C-alpha cells in the first residue's frame, strides 16, 4: 500500500515481486536405483504468496528453493531405475513439486511446477541402450516373422483340410450317385428281363412254341460250343465232335427233359392237338435212341 518514509531513518529493505518467477536449476549428477550416474537439469516455476514470510522467513528464498529442488531430485532419482526415469518423468516432476511445497510453505513461496530439461547418459550406457533397442527390434522382427510363418502354416493346413473335406464330400456324392444309377440300371434290367420272360412264356404257350424253343436251344448250343476254344486252353470235347446232328439232338433231348413236367401239366389242363402229340412222340424216341447209341 501507500507508505511514508522518513529520510535518513527509514529505507526499503526488501522488494518482492508477486509475479511468477522462473529459476534454472543447475545441472547435477544423480545415481539411479540400478547404479547409473545421470547428469540432469531442470526449470523451476515459483510465485511469492506471502511477501512478509518471503522476506523474513528465509535469507535467500530463491537459493533455498533451488537447493531443495536439487536434493529432492537426487532423492527421487535414487528410487527409480534408468528405464523408469525416462518413462515416469511426469510423476517425477509431480513428486518434486510436492516435496518443495511442503518445505516452502513457511517461506511464503509456492512451487507451481517443475520441468526436467535434459537428461545426459554416460556414453557407454548410451551405447548399451542403443544395443538393447536394436536387440529388442530384432527380437520383435523375429517374433513377427515367426508369427507370420505360423499363421501361414495354419492357413495352408486349414486350406488343405477344407480341400480334403470337399474332396471327400464330392467323392461321397459321386459314389451315392453312382450307386443310385447302378440301382436304377439293375431295376430297369430286372424289369426288362421280367418282361422278356413274360413274353417268352407267352410265346411258348402258343401253338408250335415248343418247336421254336427247340430251334433256339439248338442254335445257342452250337454257338456256345464254338466259343470253347476261345475262352480256355483246356477243352473237354465229346466223342462225336464232327457230328453236328448228334449235338443238336442232344440239345433237343436236354430241352425236352426240362419241358416234360411243364408239358404234363399242360396236358392235364388242356388237351394237346393231335399233330403236336405225334410230332413230340416221334421226336422223343429219336432223341433217346440217339442218346443210347
From TrEMBL:
Q: Which residues form a coiled coil?
A: none
Start and end residues of each Band domain: 1-133
Which Gene Ontology BP terms does the record give? mitochondrion organization
Q: Where in the cell is it found?
A: Mitochondrion inner membrane
What membrane topology does the annotation report for this chain? Lipid-anchor
**InterPro entries this protein is in?**
Band7/mec-2_domain (IPR050710), Band_7 (IPR001107), Band_7/SPFH_dom_sf (IPR036013), STML2-like_C (IPR032435), Stomatin_HflK_fam (IPR001972)
Domain of life from the UniProt record: Eukaryota
Q: Which UniProt key words apply to this protein?
A: Mitochondrion
Q: Residues annotated as region Disordered?
A: 263-293
Which Pfam family, an example, fits this chain? Band_7_C
Q: What Gene Ontology cellular-component terms does the record carry?
A: mitochondrial inner membrane
The task this protein performs is described as: Mitochondrial protein that probably regulates the biogenesis and the activity of mitochondria. Stimulates cardiolipin biosynthesis, binds cardiolipin-enriched membranes where it recruits and stabilizes some proteins including prohibitin and may therefore act in the organization of functional microdomains in mitochondrial membranes. Through regulation of the mitochondrial function may play a role into several biological processes including cell migration, cell proliferation, T-cell activation, calcium homeostasis and cellular response to stress.
Family per record: Belongs to the band 7/mec-2 family.
Quote the protein name from its UniProt record.
Answer: Stomatin-like protein 2, mitochondrial
Origin species:
Nothoprocta pentlandii
- Specify the taxonomic lineage: Eukaryota, Metazoa, Chordata, Craniata, Vertebrata
